[in-house]
Amino acid sequence: MTAWLPDETTLHHGDGPRHHAGDGGGDVFALLREQAGNQTAQVTASGAAWLAGAAAYPRSTLAQWESRPSAPGVLPCGSAFDVVNVPTLFGRRMLEHLWSDGPGSGPVAAHRGRMLLFASPGTAQRLPSLLDWEEWGGSPRDGSGRAPLGAEGGGPKVPPLLCHGAGDAVTVPPLTCDPSSSGPRWLVAPDTRNPWLPGPDVLLWACVRVARSVPASAPRISIFPPADQGAKVYDVSRRR
Predict the structure, then answer these.
(1) For residues 82 and 123, is the Cβ–Cβ distance under 8 A?
(2) How far is it between the farthest Cα atoms of the chain?
(3) Which of 83, 1, 12, 70 is nearest to 45 (CA)?
(4) Cβ(75)–Cβ(54) under 8 Å?
(5) Is residue 81 part of a domain?
(6) Partners of 186 in beta bridges
(7) Of 47, 46, 53, whose CA–CA distance to 188 is shortest?
(8) What would you report as the CA-atom Rg of the chain, rounded to the nearest whole angstrom?
């Protein structure tokens, strides 16, 4: 097996191709190096090594990716990363705050109308507890992408989050994603062997910022015309 750990450096944007079409093309790292300069949401060779490190058998995982680089994979959570699964609209707003006002984000993927934010191990256990402690937890019945209004306080709430930690596994996008494909894809692809991952405190901050920025619900619109303030009102409930 030659695919494991052949590249100890981080690939930079703009690196040129390192192999030719007639080389046999069996090395997934060579394929990723060639495409890294053209796609910003593309997994690099170092990023692929980091992802494979989450599996129980990294060498076998890399071998599978070499044979099928366009196929999604399944990786366990809890050791290298946790994953916080949020509705797409809410996740986009989280990323806006993380990148404009916060420290940024780790790898992010999109799959089946949801956004998967890769976080530091332990986040899946602590984040729901922090949201409940701060009274920002949403109703379990609300599956919309908008922050629902709380039943008790009437304030904005964070929609239910699916937190994947130790004992869970998630589907990760292919190493080489087709932009026109409707399957899982990378929004922020891993590009180093040690990517920075947000912890529960950072994601709690982002969730609260999004929930607070959601505008108040629109006023109810009645199908009946407004009553004339000067009109006389008669009691028609009594019969003669």
Answers:
(1) yes
(2) 100
(3) 12
(4) yes
(5) yes
(6) 109
(7) 47
(8) 24
SS (H, E, C) 181-210: CCCCEEEECCCCCCCCCCCHHHHHHHHHHH
The better pLDDT of the pair 22, 237 is held by: 237
Query: Who wins on pLDDT, 65 or 16?
Result: 65
Return the residue matching tokens 């109810």.
Answer: 220
Supply the mean pLDDT for the chain.
Answer: 76
78 is a domain residue: yes
User: In the chain, which ranges are continuous DSSP H helix?
Assistant: 28-36, 45-52, 58-67, 88-100, 123-133, 200-213
User: How far is residue 104's CA from residue 4's CA, in Å, rounded to a whole number?
Assistant: 29
pLDDT at 2: 31
Instruction: Flag whether 194 is in a domain.
Output: yes
Cα-Cα end-to-end distance for the chain: 98
Residue 136 has which token pair? 């920002």
Taking 90 as the threshold, does the pLDDT of residue 5 lie above it? no
45 assigned to some structural domain: yes
Number of domains in the chain: 1
Domain membership of residue 49 as a residue range: 24-213
Question: Which amino acid appears at position 179 of this protein?
Answer: P
